[in-house]
Amino acid sequence: MRSKKTDPELPILLPFRPGIVSNGEFVPPPPTLAHRRMAHSALETATEIARKRGIDRRRFLMSMGGLAVTLGAVNLFGCDDEQPGTGYDVPSPTDVDEATACEFLDGQEFIFDIQTHHINAETPAGRGLYEGFVTNLNPNCDTADEIECASRYGYVRDIFVNSDTTVAVLSDTPSPSDESDPLTFDEMQRSRDIIDMLSSGGASRLLLHSIVVPNVGTLEEQLDLMQARAETMDVSAWKVYTPYTGTAGRGWFLDDEEFGIPFIERARETGVKLICAHKGLPLFGFDPAMASPRDMGVVAAAYPDMNFIAYHSGWDPMNAPAEGPYDPDSPTGVDVLIKSLEDNGVGPNENVYAELGSTWRGIMSDPPQAAHVIGKLLKHVGEDNVLWGTDCIWYGGPQPQIAAFRAFQIDEALAEEHGYPQLTDEIKAKIFGLNAATLYGIDAEAQRCAIEEDAIEDLRSLARDMEPDTHEPRWAHRAPISRRDVFQHFMQNGGAWSPWR
Questions:
Q1: 493 CB-near residues (< 8 Å, 6+ apart)
Q2: CATH number at residue 388
Q3: Which of 276, 278, 298 is closest to 287 using CA atoms?
Q4: Cα dihedral 393→148→7→471 (10° resolution)
């Protein structure tokens, strides 16, 4: 909407903050000198471009032109001279305008985001228990009620209207009870129903995970709940957080005889044979040892008729060094996942998948590290088994992540040296959505045709066709929280606060 003179001035924000930032669930490392230089350079360049063209700097930064400038700053300060082909293919700052930037950063891929979140702001958990978490997560929310940025309203706007996402999976977080859950399964179904009403042709844009917490209450209660939900035909996959300590007071592994094996056996019986497990990113209040993906290969070999997705791909920025070439002798982070597959005879493109939510957001400001993560996963997990996820809307709108991945390139010499496949447009299209579509049983072309002219496409087209001074940019005016923000939140909440309680 058009601003008024009495409106508070919105902050000047980059399309994304260089460096590792938090989705509110972990303490990120501080930005490096290179990351600070990226941010400074991008702001300076954007200011100069906006001044010369007589346009609003804030709006330029939140356009494709602003994103191209920010990615150019990453190239300038984050790339390795020995890998000249690794980085972002974007126009030079002197050539940046909206049309040119869109030539580099727009695309028509089928984008299937398999890790998305929102909360229900009307519940006691959403409005009370999670309010501080969400408010801190969205310090620059552009609504009067900040929690709305993480609600169903913010979700539809950020995921479907202001980004190129075609289909998404809505996921939940682990909780000991519905009373402390910011988004119950019933509310997830409600979100799907609302989005379905905006879709057409019988094709849904939203699929649902069902969270299973076998270490909460009694195991039989959890297994019976799985059965009941599976029988409603609403569950597309099971989601587990193995490091979550639950009421048992400890986390678990998928090959755990007490919790893991009974859970997998029941999933198998229900016929919903897709299991998504949080691996990496040991979050607040979690058991970090149980965040290891060392169990992925074990259960994949034992249950070849099941499919397993390692959420975050085992990436662990707090406890592992920067990602480099695969090291089987001293594996950390993503290498632990790869080593688990190798040790258990699970080859590429078999029944283990690697998901990029939070991982791509964390490494996209470090092109050499990003090249190794993407390259290793393509080589060892398989080009058919790397899946797109963003962990949004915890990070605001996903469009900057989408556009950055489109423009990302891996140096040919680096790829050849380590046996990485070339990151072609074809492989990017697989990662963006075609791989997940196959896994979830979706005909991507039929789905695209069915929703080509639905209400969401109408809203998306309307938002993009409006004049620049009369509509909000393609992603929200929000910033993920920094290390300082997280520690400030600790102080305000009496110590190491966690929403999972």
A1: 132
A2: 3.20.20.140
A3: 278
A4: 50
**Sequential DSSP letters for 287-318:** -GGGG-GGGHHHHHHH-TTSEEEEEGGG--TT
Please give the Cα distance from 414 to 408 (Å, whole number): 14
Domain-embedded: residue 422: yes
Note whether residue 222 is domain-resident: yes
Residue 155 contacts residue 118 (beta carbons within 8 Å): yes
Can the peptide bond before residue 261 be classed as cis, meaning omega within 30 degrees of 0? no
162 is a domain residue: yes
Percent composition of the chain: helix, strand, coil (DSSP 3-state, to 5): 45, 10, 45
Of 400, 338, 486, 325, the residue nearest 67 (C-alpha): 400
Residue range of the domain that includes 191: 112-450
Is residue 140 domain-resident?
A: yes
- pTM of the full predicted structure? 0.93
Amino acid of residue 31: P
Total domain count, the chain: 1
Q: Would you write out the chain's pLDDT as a tens digit for each of its 501 residues?
A: 334 434 445 567 899 999 998 887 788 888 999 999 999 999 999 999 999 989 888 888 888 999 999 999 999 999 988 888 999 999 998 888 888 998 999 999 999 999 999 888 776 555 555 555 665 565 556 555 567 778 888 898 899 988 999 999 999 888 887 777 888 889 999 999 989 888 766 678 999 999 999 999 999 999 999 999 999 878 999 999 999 999 999 999 999 999 999 999 999 999 999 999 999 988 877 899 999 999 999 999 999 999 999 999 999 998 889 999 999 999 999 999 999 999 999 999 999 999 999 999 999 999 999 999 999 999 999 999 999 999 998 888 899 999 999 999 999 999 999 999 999 999 999 999 999 999 999 999 999 888 887 888 888 877 776 645 444 566 666 667 777 777 666 666 555 545 555
| SS3 (DSSP) at 86 | coil
In 346-496, where does DSSP find H-type helix?
359-363, 367-376, 399-407, 412-418, 425-429, 435-439, 444-450, 455-465, 483-492
